[in-house]
Every structure is written in C-alpha cells, then in structure tokens.
Amino acid sequence: MNAGKLIILVVAVLFCVANLLSYLQMPEYSTLDDGYVAFGWPFSVYGSGGFVGSTFIIWTGIIGNFAVALCVARVLGRLVGDDATTRMALLANIRIQLKRRSLRSSQLAKRKW
After folding, report:
1. Looking at the whole model, is its pTM more than 0.70?
2. 25 and 75 together in one domain
3. List of residues 6+ apart from 65 with CB closer than 8 A
C-alpha cells in the first residue's frame, strides 16, 4: 500500500473516531422543552428534538465532513507522501545553486578595478 492511500485511510479512521466520540457524548434528550441535540465533528451530521421530537440527518454536514477529510488527507499526503523526498531534494539543489551564485558575486565584488 502506498503512502497516499495509507494517509487517506488514517484520516478517514480519525474522522470516524471523532464522530463516534461526538455521538457517545451526545445527551439522550435536550434540556429545553423544544430544544435540539446533534452530534458530528467538525460539522453536525445528525439531530433530534423539537416540539414533535423529529430526528433528521444533516446532509450538508456529511458532505462538509467528507470535504474536510479529503482536504486534510491531501495536505498530509503532500507533506508526508512519496513526493516529499523529491521536493526536499529539489529544495536542497536550489540552496546549493543560490550559494554558488552568492560566492560568485562575492568573488566578482573582490575583483573590482
């Protein structure tokens, strides 16, 4: 399994665990007569309560959680993935070239007429 798929899997599991913990901490009922309770992290995905005690799935929260998980996985994949070593080598090469240029410019400055 390559690093990108592993990172996506780890982020998905972390989001599932976070939503499960949010569910486990959700109270059974609201403390207000017509209040609502909800769970989900970072966006609410389920709610219940109100005057007639309705329950509902918050689809925008599910879509938002999915989008956030994908963005987090992509950022972590960029930082940790296989391309990170290539990126570090490229940065090291740029630093070496900049050092050479600065050495050349300092040598030219010493040779002023």
Report:
1. no
2. yes
3. 15, 19, 40, 41, 42, 43, 45
